[in-house]
Amino acid sequence: MKMNTQQVKLVAFDFDGVIAETIKEWYSLGLKAFNHVGSNLQSSREAEEKFRQARSFLKNAEDCYFVFKSIKEENVDFNTITQEEFNRMAQPFFEKEGKALAKEVYAQRAELRENDKEKWLELFSVFPEMISVLKKVIEQFEVVIATTRDRASVSAILEKQEISINDHKIISREFSIDKREQMKFITKEYAVSFEEIFFIDDILEHLKLVGSLGVNVVLASWGYSNRQQLSEAREKGIPILKAPHDILSHLGVSGP
Fold first, then answer.
1. How far apart are CA 183 and CA 99, in angstroms?
2. Which CATH architecture has domain 5-21+126-251?
3. How does pLDDT run across 68-108, given as a tens digit for each residue?
4. Residue among 231, 200, 190 at smallest CA distance from 18
């Protein structure tokens, strides 16, 4: 994919897997939600490890239903399947079971956040360097968050890290879980072209879709992509960032 960062006016960051490590929360709330909607899967080290293996394929909360179902039935090897195979197997469960699980996840998250915010925040950590990198990029570019997570959660986690991004700059699942639709909204809201957007995500599927619009895309290798996805990114010419400070060099911003 061609990239021209000289004309970049706006930088869009994905959240989960780029700014914050969120897998503990996804596993904890996702498992509870899976059992709430009619199943019975016990938490274990093996189950958590399989969820970590599957995390590289997850594009939204709805996909979690298929992951936990597969963990319970032990019928999918997440180390060997492709994104296309995952999408095909998960799709039949998206509309009914997936949306039911997602609804329960967000209800549990809101309840925990309201009733015990500190306990909820303990489930997250921000990747090293991201705080200083974000603050540096904010000084020189328009910055938004483009995420399939809910806005309130993103806002609360950023607030704890003393990162100042207004809520209206968090383009979240309340608007759309389709990153292409989020980018189209950004072009209209901020009067920029696709070619003037620089987008960082750790999910290759998102980058392929967004990149097809003409957006400058890069893959954050510190997130949840697996080896197969990193290899495909190289084949497609998508730049792979080894560490958060690489964002600054791609944008021509001096380090902290």
1. 23
2. 3-Layer(aba) Sandwich (3.40)
3. 999 999 989 998 999 999 999 999 999 999 999 999 999 99
4. 200
